[in-house]
Amino acid sequence: MAAKKKKKTTKKKSSGWGGRRPGAGRPPGTGKGPSPGARINRVVAMLSNDELKALKRIAKQKKLPLGTAAYEIIARTLKRSS
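Request: output the structure for the sequence above.
Response:
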């Protein structure tokens, strides 16, 4: 007859990310939310291939990210219309 296996007594490792650690994260009291001028609203636009190509060309000329170029075009148009 085979000998009984002895149960391990070591502590099982946590499957999480380590939990709360001293000094981790932001200091308390710094979460005041977004600044008043922050862009926090998301808008989605479906573009045709030609429109996307034109937007990419504009962004590349201005050396801007695609989203920033789209934002500038929209913001400028809205300023003119109001």
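The helical segments are 49-62, 66-81.
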